[in-house]
# Entry
Amino acid sequence: MAEHEEKAVSPGTPELGAGWTAGGVTDKIAGVVLGRGGPWTRGWHAHWRWRSALLISFGGVLTLLAASTWLFMRGVGLFGVNIPVAWGFALGNFVWWIGIGHAGTFISAILLLLRQRWRTSINRYAEAMTLFAAGIAGLFPIFHLGRPWFAYWLLPYPNRMELWPQWRSPLVWDIFAISTYLLVSLLFWYVGLIPDLASLRDKAASRGKRLGYGILALGWRGDARHWRHYETAYLLLAGLATPLVVSVHTVVALDFSIGNTPGYHSTIFPPYFVAGALFSGFAMVITLAIPLRHYFRLHDFITLRHLELAAKVMLACSLFVAYGYASEIFTAYYSGDTYEIHMTQDRFTGMYAPVYWVYMFCNVVVPQLLWWRRARRNVPTLLVVSLLVNAGMWMERFVIVVQSLHADYLPSAWGVFLPSVWDWVFLLSSIALFVWLFLMFIRYLPMISMAEMRGLVQETAEEAKP
Amino acid sequence: MRRLVAPTASTAAAIGVDGGRRRVLKLMAASAALAGSGCGQPPPEKIRPYVNMPEGMAPGDPVFYASTLLRQGCGVGVLVETESGRPIKIEGNPAHPASLGAADAQSQAAILTLWDPERSRTVMRGGQPSTWTTLLDSLATQMGQEAAARGGGLRLLSGPVSSPTLLAQIGEILARFPEARWHVHDPAGCDAAKHAALQLFGGPVQPLYRLEHAHTVLSLDAELFGPSADGLRNAHDFMNARRGEPRARMYALESTPGLCGAVADTRIALSPAGMEAVLDMIASQLGVSDAMAEQRPGPQAAWVSRLCTRLSAAHGASAVIPGHSLSSRAHLLAWRINTRLGNLGRTIHPIAQRLPPAPLADGTHDAAPAPEGLGALVQAMHDGDVQTLLMLDVNPVYDSPGALDFARGLSRVACSIHMGLYRDETAHASNWHIPMAHELEAWSDARSFDGTASLVQPVIAPLYGGLSAHEVLDMLAHMRTRSAHELVRAQWRNAWNMNDAEEFERRWEEALRRGVIEEAQADRLVPIDEKALKARLPEGPGPEPQLIAVFANDHNIVSCNQANNAWLQELPRPYTKITWDNAALIGPATAGRHGLRNGDVVSLTSADKPDGLLAPVWIVPGQAEGVVTLPLGYGRHQGGSVAQGRGFDAHVLQEVRNGMSLRSAAVQLRPTGQHHAFAATQHEMGLAGREPVRSVSLHARDGADAADAAPPSLYPPRQYGGPAWGMTVDLDACIGCNACAIACQAENNIPSVGPEEVARGREMHWMRIDVYHADSGGRAQFQPMACQHCENAPCEIVCPVGATMHDSEGLNVQVYNRCVGTRFCSNNCPYKVRRFNFFDYADHDPSAAARANPDVTVRQRGVMEKCTYCVQRISHARIEAQKQGRPLRDGDVVTACEATCPTQAIVFGDTADPRSRVSRAKASARNYTVLAELNTRPRTSYLARIHDKEAGLEEEDDG
Amino acid sequence: MTPRFYGVVGRFETPDALLEAIRCLRRRDRHLRLEAYAPYAVEGLSEALDLPRGKVPLFTLIGGVLGGASGFFMQWYAAVVSFPVNIGGRPLNSWPMFIPVTFEMTILGAALAAVLGMLAVSGLPRLHHPIFDAPCFGLATRDRYFLCLRPPPGMPGPAPAKQYREVLESLGATASDEVWT
# Structure
């Protein structure tokens, strides 16, 4: 008992509730996965909720499989695309998902470098979100191809024809950017997981789990040497991931701004796409955080402060994006370029104007609520705002991709894009896939980094000492 | 006998009907067996390759045959390109007066009809397949009865006939059966004009225009530039006159935008009655009108008098050309005016229509009386005077005026025999149907619009066992079955009255090789009957009804045989850009008055058609208000899956007055609230403040520059060792006839995608003809737009796999088998001229394989495609040049669009060679490139239109 | 084979206890072979053990440079040497367009080198290790701290297990066990 008093106990800070010991946080978080002490036994309702959600989302996954089979059999004509609007939902979805896939690495990397304590309890699931979103985003360019079975031609690989990708094409840059981003995010995530996997290995009851987690943990034993190299590597990864995050959406933005289409060809695109990406990313982080903390009773770990800070980032992004919108309009008129001006006016009043104004409302007006502390700390409000922002950002992508194309240079070539039922099927079932993956993640991996939480407990405890 | 029985032995595969997209895509596909066995099989008789082409059948080397296609019975000379025995492409015949090397959309599309597996394949009796022999037997008995009655019950119905052989055969029949009658049904023709000519010349006379001698042309709703037997030639001649000094002028009064209006110096939208009023005013100003037309002052009077002075100023070099929609009185007026202007014999030649020879007692021949019209026949049928009716390549059950009710009459005919390419409405309503051979499958002959005779030379044995009209008529006349080949040769043996077989053979082969027959006597002009000229004019039109329907020939589908042709169906109409459909065309004000938008279905009723018909409207700027134009040729019930169930049949509203089927009728219009979705290829026709189409004023033609200064480039210009191919399109010469678009489709195996896909914006034409309506005037500007082959091609930079790149001669090439289909290139193409295979559009039917151009890849699903500057022709020319060990010469490479253009608006060649035609064209001050500000440096440039200020009628002062 | 003596592991309840133990052991003998185990990166632990500087940053640098160089070379070679075609009239070596891929390759190379280097220098993966046999060593990944005292290499004579245990417990280890391989 004597040593028990000495044990570090969290005094209760904005980021971490009071009364938590290193063992406590470990048990709590591992419990969710190992089904001991976690809500699986205590809150059985979380259990059946999880099951039914998994079932429904899996239905969506099967739909996606079936739909893509049919797509590959019949041809990309299933979508509403045509000439002149040769890019439709598929590309919009791609940009949207990749945007969502930004917040995770941003949180883990940049907030780590900035020594932001509030990153600790949200980075793990945010990174998972990043991985899944980026992975799904990677599917859409393939769905969108006329001959998807030749997608690998975009990669440089030795072939006897001595054919290479065409390096001047932003799409090739995309391939490199996205695959690099996926790989680095995966490494970052996995490296972060290793100590936690070790904890699970050591806590797991069944031999099977011990074996599984043990293999994944690579024999981690918390040796001081390991910790030393581990920390250096983790820090370096963070340093590398930071410019990477920025570069990925920059490249995605270049897909458009390299093109000469009015509405694509704009220098503001890279920064404004990155901001948009964080915008939707943080919206998604909040969207996920709220149910997580609710169903798994993580209010002590994912506190109001976390939500509030995420909301602040969202507000900042919203302002940046708004600046992007404004500058687009300004440059269009300032340039005096007939085509740019026409494109802008068409945005205001053309056939896609309703979508334009709706996303203006979602992305620019609604987030202004977050100036008020009460709104930032009110969970339902946050949920609604973040959902609206997600929807708004999707519409923005849609308008950029489609509206710019439908009326460009020669009036004779102007056309109209109307989404087909398949466009919607792919959008919705991709969301289902995301949900399914996320549900699997929270079931089998710790959604919060235990190792870092232990550190946090110690840290806060020491701070509290007189 | 065996020869005749053999082809029909194969039983027909009844083709189910459904209008689905797949159906349309598979339209040319029904029977592998027949198409397969058909291809590569030359006709049994000896046919002669076109003389300028390499002899023999080297595989891969195309062989060209001169032949003749029929348009309203008149001949249009063509060269048929055959690839190891398979006809694959049609070009114009430079030696033929109706072609001069050009071919219009309908001629180009004939290849598709030739191979159409939905063509009729077997003799039918009642709905049942029968055989030629059974037909012969029953025909024998039938003719026996007729012979007894001196042919009292025998009637022959055909379209206009120019074929000397056919006329001779008809003559024989009329001689053998004195009581028999021959009727001519010409749904695309103009009875009013015929009637007027009959009055003035006392016989069937057609005006032949010589526009190369014309300086001032006034067109009143005239379809001068086709599609018709003389359209190509008129376009060619007028554009030559325009290029000359002084520049020829065109004034167009139109009830609906037509091709003349686009080239006119002044175009004015008027109702047919309004045009007649203008004619009246001109006539009275020239003093050739008995009734002094009251001169109401006003703007119209002003420009009419200006017009009048210009017409008379160009004495003998003007032409007043009335069109179908005008009354026979208006046509009379036009003749009078032209006579007074001294145009007869100069710009307008009245030439007699050929009639069957009637043998006289003394053995000489006299011309038989002119054939009667459809009205008389229907009358006789209703009276029950018709026992035997033979209908040659006509479809009156569908395309005769509703007022006649031909079908009911037909049901009263004991033995009705229909012969045609398709089992159309008439075939189903007749006792017998005989499958007819296509022009390219059977021997015949024809005369062109100007009387030049030429032979119809088959280039392939009948694919679906069709027969020739000659064989059937020979049967009728003599109960003999001589082959069409014998009959035609016999005809010309007499015509040339040659007994020397050798001499005949020489001349025959000469005729086949050149594609025209040299004849001694030219067509003599028919003298106009002075008395008739002075005679009192019939009463002018009464008060104009509020809304008048004008029945116009469709731009694409002129005859029933073209209705099952997917190329013509999918070819956008010049002004509306509608495909696969016809629409009731109305003006903006009329639309506003009834609160109509494009596609709103209205019901049109006339006095004697109270039930009327339902038609979706399309609003056309430049349409005369108070006029609804109803294109004919749609609303088919039979005749192929492509033809059926599209558009509406305007014939039902057509009325008949004293034997003439009228081209206009007073109608009431009532919105129904229903809506019809059209498949149009161009939605925006305003210029939106851009100037893709430019014009320079006549006198600045050589001064002011149409082009902008080329913006600087960061990159050094590429130097090409070999030729640098380039193209110019003369927008002042382009009449927007669409011939190039179809020529391109035929040459490059471009698939048809069907109305649903067109509606989704996925049409595949590599060459599209953009139309813009300059501000309000409704005066249209056409612009052929295909890949511009930019030096700094934006499409190439963004392709991730390098599937589109520049080749050594600066062509922007598309590597189909490297394309993965990201479609980024299309996004980045400012001209949006790239086309994408969203589905597997290619037609995999054997018949399609047989007619495909073997030098052009058939694209698979998911790849991008676009104009290649006919790269296959370039390499073919290069190979030829190398075989002859000489460098490529200017004109060695002729792209499909250039070859077929009737006005030589398109010029292709080596821009690196300063002496080439294209280099000289590019040197013109009118030369400019579209969207030059993007610095794409296109290889294709345009020559600005010429705006002749003095020529316009708008200005107050004119010299 | 006969089990070899690995060392003696002592369990501590708090990081401070662990650090304290290490420090005074070091004061006694700088060359003692010590291994410390903690459930998270305890501040000052590596200083106390005065571990040598890691090589991970160096690996990362090399990886990045290699990645970037190979990335640019690949593009240059493909566009200029192996497959030179006229693309939109641009120069063959349009290096500004090669930057994005070069950049991504740099990051990729560096990141891979960092992680693989980290695993390599910490001798992972190594799924089994004698220390795992120590009783309740599982708590090392929860909330307990362990210090393993190891004999110098090639030390003759019997294992000084007993003496080591006394040392550790005198330093405040709540429990200590021998570890044999």
In short: The radius of gyration of chain A is 24 Å. Strands of chain A lie at 9-13, 16-21. The domain at 2-464 of chain A is CATH 1.20.1630.10 (Formate dehydrogenase/DMSO reductase fold).
